[in-house]
Amino acid sequence: MTDAVLQLSDVEFRWMGQAGFSLRVPNLSVGKGESVLLLGESGSGKSTLLSLICGTILPTSGVVQIAGQDITKLSGGKRDRFRAEQIGVIFQQFNLLPFGTVGDNILLPLRFAPARRKRAKDATAQASNLCSALGLPSGVFNTKATALSVGQQQRVAVARALIGQPPLIIADEPTSALDANSQAAFLDLLFAQTAAHDTSLLMVSHDPRLGERFDRVIRMEDIAQIERGTP
Amino acid sequence: MILRLAIASLFARALTVGMTILAIALSVALFLSVEKVRTGAKASFADTISGTDLIVGARSGSVQLLLYSVFRIGNATNNVTWQSYQDIAARPEVDWIVPISLGDSHRQFRVMGTTQAFFEHYKYRQGRSLEMADGLIMDDLFDTVIGADVAATLNYRVGDPIVVAHGLASFSEHKDQPFRVSGILRKTGTPVDRTVIVSMEAIEAIHVDWQGGAQVQGQATPVDVIREMDLKPSAITAALVGVKSPLQTFRLQRAINEYSQEPLLAILPGVALQELWSIVGIAETALLAVSFMVVVTALIGMMATIFSSLNERRREMAIFRAMGARPMTILSMLVLEAMLMAALGALLGLALLYLGLFIAQPILDSAFGLWLTIDPPSLREVWVMLAVIAAGAIVSMVPALRAYRMSVADGMIVKT
């Protein structure tokens, strides 16, 4: 797949200090504009896989390619910069810096990504637009992040992931803290925005019911093997 | 933006951060005030006497002579005879000479007998002369000029009568010869403020009926008779000497020290002051060391605060990491935070110092005769503050390095 935004090939990661305990991902790819749901139970290595994709940890062997760049070849500092430029991250909950305003939180990744800041052009205006597109109340920009409801905070996290149009969004169970109605509304907004910006989405969840809304559903056990060494 | 977020983060932890800043501020204020008192004391010490080339007294130690003649601390072990005084006065090198006679007191203040020349030649604080705040220099035999502190403490005005006591802390008073306050000196910040000045003749006059330190039984010479008497002093306690040319100072000093008729001692006030200060200076260094340790303690307190905040801030660090911040950025943010706290602490400390100075200035002045000037921060004080900020940065490296390692290990996996 030539236009893959994310491509993992023969990736192996060994946990330090735990002999024989390793995660292997022979092949994982996400195409441009594609939305993929990655299902997995806890302990299936999801968090490790996300850290490998984001470049905060390095595989023992293999290739992690994002937007055509093998990030395992980059130095630590360059990987951090690359992540800021290319990946928008949404956590499960507590996404925002509690002491910052909504605006601070949305604009934060641009601080570490000059190219993305350039892409955003008028960053403040784009952030405001994203806020209104995501159904956040007007005037929310200068509100303290902690003053918002959990659902609103998650939407701010989406705006932060989308600003400056990174090619890939990684979402780690972003709906788990929301009730069923809010979940649906949140996903509607998220898909509308990723579609509008032609952004790829890799979302991790343990809830298979979300699967029908994604282009593709993959299971952790199908793409990755965890080897547990003998103690 | 990072600076703004760091400030916002500090505000979010206002209570603990406030306490930390207050601790630093108090320690800096303590350090600066110790420094201020130290330099103030040293300056006011050195300013006590100026323009006098030699102090002459009976042979003892130079510090002792300086202490009793200038600071009115302790007592002379011996006197200088009037004959020796006149021999010195007649020497060609001598430009002026002022005799001093000590030994009596009024309440808690020392009485000093001297001549009109004292008001002319005694200089303090780089050559400033004594000035009258009220009244005139003594004219009559029983006139007295009092220092500013004497007037303020005992609430004396020009024209008030005062009775001199024989000796120091004594119950026997020269009641038969009451004095009248003829003038009050302006505040000088020197021991003169706490001195009752009378003429040399007056010292003789009040001792007419005294012999061997006690009043002669039944003898009470009337004041009118005393006035008619020859009141030439037989001895003085010390003399302040000015020479015609500075080059002659050492020659005159040697001549006096080798004076054959009487064992005398001539000292250079500046040298004796230095000698005295080097004795007092040990306490000064100890005080400075203690206040330095207080600053170190406050900074270590800040380190502890940052350490204890690290765990609850792991999520914050994970968010920064996920957004592309390098572990180095996390480290710098913590150091920046510490520097902000230290800087705020140092500034607040400086403000506290000035507040303290405004409050303490008159109290220190009246209680200890120590006049602390309120000037804009000196270069030295600015350096102290910068050093505190730098030390804050260095101290914060310990928790910051831990945060660095934590953020490398955690990556963007959020641990709550």
UniProtKB/TrEMBL annotation, chain A:
What CDD domains does this protein's entry cite?
ABC_MJ0796_LolCDE_FtsE
Under SUPFAM superfamilies, the record lists: P-loop containing nucleoside triphosphate hydrolases (SSF52540)
Q: Which GO terms describe its cellular component?
A: plasma membrane
> Mind listing the GO molecular function terms for this protein?
ATP binding; ATP hydrolysis activity; transmembrane transporter activity
The protein's UniProt keywords, in alphabetical order, are: ATP-binding, Nucleotide-binding, Transport
Q: Which residues form the ABC transporter domain?
A: 6-231
Q: Give the taxonomic lineage as stored in the record.
A: Bacteria, Pseudomonadati, Pseudomonadota, Alphaproteobacteria, Rhodobacterales
Name this polypeptide is given: Putative ABC transporter ATP-binding protein
* One of the Pfam families matching this protein, by short name: ABC_tran
Q: Does the keyword Transport apply?
A: yes
Instruction: Give the matching InterPro entries.
Output: AAA+_ATPase, ABC_transporter-like_ATP-bd, ABC_transporter-like_CS, ABC_transpr_LolD-like, MacB-like_ATP-bd, P-loop_NTPase, Sigma_54_int_dom_ATP-bd_1
Automatic annotation (TrEMBL), chain B:
Would I find Iron among this entry's keywords?
A: no
What is the name of the protein in this document? Answer: Macrolide transporter ATP-binding /permease protein
Task: Note the PANTHER family from the entry.
Answer: ABC TRANSPORTER PERMEASE, ABC TRANSPORTER, MEMBRANE PROTEIN
Q: Which domain of life is it from?
A: Bacteria
Q: What organism does the UniProt record list as the source?
A: Planktotalea frisia
So where does this one cross the membrane? 6-32, 264-283, 289-310, 330-363, 383-404
Span of domain MacB-like periplasmic core: 19-207
Which stretch is the leader sequence? Answer: none
User: Molecular function terms in GO for this entry?
Assistant: ATP binding
* Protein keywords: ATP-binding, Cell membrane, Membrane, Nucleotide-binding, Transmembrane, Transmembrane helix
Localization (cell):
Cell membrane
Q: What do the Gene Ontology cellular component annotations say?
A: plasma membrane
